[in-house]
Amino acid sequence: MTKTSQRNRFRLKFLRALRPWHRRLGLASALFILLLVFTGVAINHSDDFGLDQTPVTQSWLLDYYGIPAPTHVAMFSVLDTPNLPALHVTDNLLWRGKRVIFEGTQTLISASYVTNMLVAIDAQQLYLFDTAGHLQETQNSSTGLPTDLLALAVVDNRVWLNTDAGVYRADEQLIDWQLMAPIKPLSWLIPNLQVDVEFIQRARSAHLNWERVMQDLHSGRLFGALTVWLWDLFALALLLVSLSGFWIWYKQKPPR
């Protein structure tokens, strides 16, 4: 048997063995490509689809990401301003109706509407918003705000703060704070802790949107570090499919 015929027999055997693996790798790679295409298009058009503004509401997915329910949930009455949305606090988030308008660095204590503003406090800072919920100003000890805040009250459109050092009242512009004893007991804003389960679920959803899920799925990080290696194997499979397909075409092309 000549060397040429031996070479041809070896080439035929190799091609027969290569074709099944080429098909198997091609099928596996096709599923991977479909996933990448779907998630890639979703990410590229996230603004068009509103994924960055669409919270994840599925409890199992929130549990998978380790997002717990807020530990501090309260609603503040707006009986004096029934035409304005209710104010809620969930840990360090301030809600105006169903929309988060502020994320603080500490747990928020209280919030209320006052004249044409909205005021909220944590233990060390006071935040001023317009009635649409846009942050206008932040006050703290460097601006003359009392420290160690405990509660908030609004009486005759004047803001009062209860602190460890006593009771303070702001001037009409909410710039200067004066330590003073009120003539009559103040009605400090008491949060309503009876918040429905639906709102608590919405508060969890505020920490995760579908754009983040699509990004994690596209990169393989959604299922942990091991999946990133699996995605690398799929990428290697794509490379092998390309090389094996080229090899099969090259060896089977008719001579010129």
UniProtKB/TrEMBL annotation:
Keyword annotations of the record: Membrane, Transmembrane, Transmembrane helix
Transmembrane spans: 228-250
UniProt xrefs under InterPro entries: PepSY-ass_TM, PepSY_TM-like_2
Keyword match Membrane: yes
Protein name: PepSY domain-containing protein
Species this chain originates from: Shewanella livingstonensis
